[in-house]
Amino acid sequence: MNDEVKIDINFNNRRKNNFLIKSLQISSYGVKKENLINILVTIIIYLSTFSFFYFLKNKSLYLDASNFTFLGFFLLSLFLGVVLSEKVSFKRDMEIEEIFKKLYFSFVVSLCSLIILLLIFKVHYVTRFYVLAAMLTGLVIEYYYFMIFNKYKQAKIKSVEHYKLSIKYLLIDGLILTFFCYIEIILNLFPTNFNEKDFVLIGVIYISWIISAATTHKFIPIVISTSRWNAFELQVKFYFRIIVIILLSLIFLQLGFSNSVYFIKALIGYSIVSSIISMFLFADKIKNKTDEATVVFLKAYEMKDPAVPNSVKKRIGKYAFQNIEAAESVVRQKIQFEYLKNYGEVFSVLDTMLDLKSFDTRKALVIKSDEPNNLTAHQADSLQLFVNLHILNDQVKLNDYILDVRKSLVHGGVFVGALLPHHYRYRRYLKNYSFWTANTLYFFDFFWKRVFPKIPITREIYFTFSKEKDRALSLAEGLGRLVYCGFKILDLAAVDDVVYFAAARNGLYEPVKKFFYSPIFKMKRIGKGGKTIYVYKLRTMYPYSEFIQDFVYEHNNLEVGGKFKDDFRVPAWGKLFRKMWIDELPMLINWVKRDLKLVGVRPLSNHYLSLYSKEHQERRKNFKPGLVPPFYADLPDTIEEIELSEKRYFDAYEKNPFKTDIKYFSKALNNILIKKKRSA
Fold first, then answer.
1. Residues sharing a CB contact under 8 Å with residue 98, sequence separation 6 or more, in sequence order
2. Facing residues of 537 across strands?
3. Which of 128, 271, 331, 620 could covalently link to 361 via disulfide, CB atoms 3.0 to 4.6 Å apart?
4. What is the Cα–Cα distance from 632 to 448, expressed in whole angstroms?
5. What would the mean pLDDT of 292-307 be, rounded to a whole number?
6. Minimal CA–CA distance to 432: which of 414, 445, 449?
7. pLDDT of residue 643
8. Looking at residue 390, what DSSP letter applies?
9. Residues 536, 541, 547, CA angle at the centre, nearest 5°?
């Protein structure tokens, strides 16, 4: 009986396994079948358009040997476009934007491939404008097929006003394009020099205009753009994609230089006028992303017990000073009704940050001053609480001032200060002036207050004339200076466009000999054998950001890919530089100096290295870091997966170093160039 049961169970298990295998096979077949259908549709579309235009030219579908050879090149170029763009692997839940991008990329690759093939094999007997017309017509039909017949998910736009706005903008932009086509192309070429090639090229201009707009959401920037930097990036992509298609078409058609100039002038004129009008229409409507959300996010977070004496963490989130000398203090009443009687909101903020009753009123000081000598009258280690309501932006020799505050506080004492970050600085202009006047003034303010102090040649000029007053500080730099000078950030809050912070004296002050504010700077990293190396990078973070790495990790954690989540230390332009890999170009200096090799694990800071297991930390030190890490070959998501990826790389490298580096470099190159994986 037991044997029968076992046999029956085994039989049922086999049936289940067979069912699962068949299900997987059917599922896999379904995916392959859908891809196969897409391939067949693509071939049918382009063969049909090619045949149509070939018939228009020759009044026959008969292919001689030369045209049959060209048809082979045509199909080969289409195949390369399909493979490299992966456009046949569309999914039902894919948004239209992704479909447009793949079809655009496929068209560009196919056209480039066809140009190269025709040049290599010196094919001159083909009427090229018919071929280009066939490719463009096929592209339009492809769009229609994937958008309408397959009913893919379209991007959702919530408000009807956005549709009206996009239609108006489309009509305005179309009129601008038509105007420049007319004055630069039609007037100069028609009727004497206007031929079939020019007619096809005008069609290319309008089709590339529609395609590029669809892939970048040009006509709905308010809905799509997350910030003005992002809107600018999308506009650049739009004009770049138009230029690429038109230039490739000019090369393919072998248009004469004199005629090509008219098309290029029309394109340049359109791009300039269109971008200016776009800026005036939408710049004031696109919400500029700032670090204000970070201030709100950090407000009243649950703090860990600070490792300092004479302090205690209250359950409600307030920082309290454990007062030994005074059992009861009146400092709260003093601050509320005497020191801050005209600053009710500021007092409310302080009251949520700190348990004011726990401080000795005889060892508390509240001022509003930018004079550094206010602290000279106080002995070292004499204050439990120091409050200065004047913004740090006006303090002369800011680090020296913060160090003087630190010196006057007892260990665990609290410094409450104020800071005017960049985004509130910008908002100050918007409150006092109209949008374009405010942006014009802020443009000059940006260069004087933020660019000049960072460049060695202009730094002395800035400090000579500015007297270090009203200096531009980001939230990251302000907090970074505090941590660098030996403070621990307790809490933040924004009141009337000013950020108020509470920071406890904690830890030792370790001075750095020299800070580098220039665009290229050095970062302290761990190299082979645990040796300290300095890696060159283009600055994408605010100054002093490296000192709050622990702070950001503690409260923001890591996102997919091992990067810090919501990292307010990186401005919008920094994210753009990282996305385009511009920030890592100076690391080639380290490659020349042999601190880094071409392929290898990422050079890490002490903090980031500490996130790995102890065993992996030690093993990592046996290998030289590299420019191209295994991360871009395996694309792991979490810190654990990154560690596992590096372990696999080390295992393979120990067996065959050269082969492993070639393999990982090839995979990384494919992921970066073809699959569009970028640095975050």
1. none
2. 521
3. 331
4. 39
5. 41
6. 445
7. 92
8. E
9. 90
- Are 585 and 538 contacting, i.e. CB atoms less than 8 angstroms apart? yes
Nearest alpha-carbon partner for 291 in 630, 619, 643, 548: 548
Residue 380: predicted pLDDT: 81
Could you tell me what percent of the chain has a pLDDT over 70? 78
The CA-based angle 265-269-272, given to 5 degrees, is 140
pLDDT of res. 263: 92
Query: In the structure encoding, which two tokens stand for residue 167, read together?
Result: 């239609």
**Radius of gyration of the chain from its Cα atoms, rounded to whole angstroms:** 32
- Count other C-beta atoms under 10 Å from residue 528's C-beta: 17
Place of tokens 């493979």: 83
pLDDT reading at 624 higher than 90 = yes
**CA 251/CA 115 separation, integer angstroms:** 8
Tokens describing residue 135? 């490719």
Q: Which helix (H) or strand (E) holds 311?
A: strand 311-313
pLDDT on residue 174: 92
Is residue 597 classed as helix, strand or coil in its secondary structure?
strand
Rounded to whole angstroms, how far apart are CA atoms 55 and 169?
Answer: 39
What is residue 604's DSSP assignment?
A: B
DSSP state of 575: H
The identity of residue 481, as a single letter, is R
Residue that is written with structure tokens 């003005």 in the block: 228
Note whether 631 and 670 are within 8 A (CB): no
Q: What angle do CA 602, 608, 614 make, to 5 degrees?
A: 95
Q: How many residues does the chain have?
A: 680
Question: Rounded CA gap, 492 and 473, in Å?
Answer: 16
Between helix 2-58 and helix 128-144 the angle, nearest 10°, is 140
Domains of the chain with bracketed CATH: 22-155 (no CATH), 157-288 (no CATH), 292-421+473-505 (3.40.50), 526-673 (no CATH)
Q: CB under 8 Å to 509, separation ≥6 — which residues?
A: 403, 406, 484, 485, 486
Tokens of 491: 């809490």
- Tokens 């230089």 belong to 257
Residue with tokens 């109209």: 434
Structure tokens at 489: 């950030």
Structure tokens, 280 = 């005036």
User: Per DSSP, which regions of 6-130 are E strands?
Assistant: none
Beta carbons of 211 and 104 less than 8 angstroms apart: yes
Cis amide bond preceding 191, omega within 30? yes
CA angle 213, 214, 217 (to 5 degrees): 70
